[in-house]
Amino acid sequence: MLEIKIENVMCDHPIKVRDNIMLGSVAHLLLRHQINGVLVVKNTDENKLVGIITTTDLLRLINAALSKNTQRLKALKKIGLMLAGDVASKKIISLQKDDTLMKAVVLMHRKNIHTIPIYDKNKLVGVIGKHDVLNMALV
């Protein structure tokens, strides 16, 4: 497992959303595809990655809304209407397709991330998530 290349484990058809899609739709995609994160791309260029939205990001927003006391329902409804590009984590940690799976595991663990975009030089070619790692290592 130490020397397996990411390109042999990654998903080569990552689910991407445009930066102008509402978070309610993003949440639906995460649930429907049983994934932990989606890549957010520019509305005008689906190959230009601008961020990532994960289930952790959505839970953070829900937690903040629930702390609003009397305005909880209103705050929760606002979350679904927010735009993906406004919420996406902009600090993107990526890897190259010829990096090793071990490098992905170390990054996921040390940085507490579970969705990593994969590039072939400057071209986005896939994504690796914690489920991909678990499937390769333990199944």
Distance between the termini: 12 Å
Rg for CA atoms: 16 Å
**Helix and strand succession?**
EHEEHHHEHEEH
Strand order of the largest sheet: 1-2-3
Number of helices: 6
Provide keyphrases for this structure.
139 residues, alpha/beta, three-stranded mixed sheet, 6 strands
How would you characterize this protein structure?
By secondary structure, this protein is an alpha/beta fold. The protein is 41% helix and 24% strand. The protein contains 6 helices and 6 strands, in the order βαββαααβαββα. A 3-stranded mixed beta sheet has the order 1-2-3. A 3-stranded mixed beta sheet has the order 4-5-6. Helix 5 links the parallel strand 4 and strand 5. Helix 2 (55-66) packs antiparallel against helix 3. The protein is globular and about 55 Å long. The model has no long low-confidence stretch (mean pLDDT 91).
Topology:
Elements: E1 16-18, H1 23-33, E2 37-42, E3 45-54, H2 55-66, H3 72-81, H4 84-87, E4 95-96, H5 101-111, E5 115-120, E6 123-129, H6 130-138
Parallel strand pairs: 1-2, 4-5
Antiparallel strand pairs: 2-3, 5-6
Helix pairs in contact: 2-3
Please outline what is shown here:
The protein has 139 residues and is of the alpha/beta class. The protein has helices spanning 23-33, 55-66, 72-81, 84-87, 101-111, 130-138, and strands spanning 16-18, 37-42, 45-54, 95-96, 115-120, 123-129. It is built from 6 helices and 6 strands.
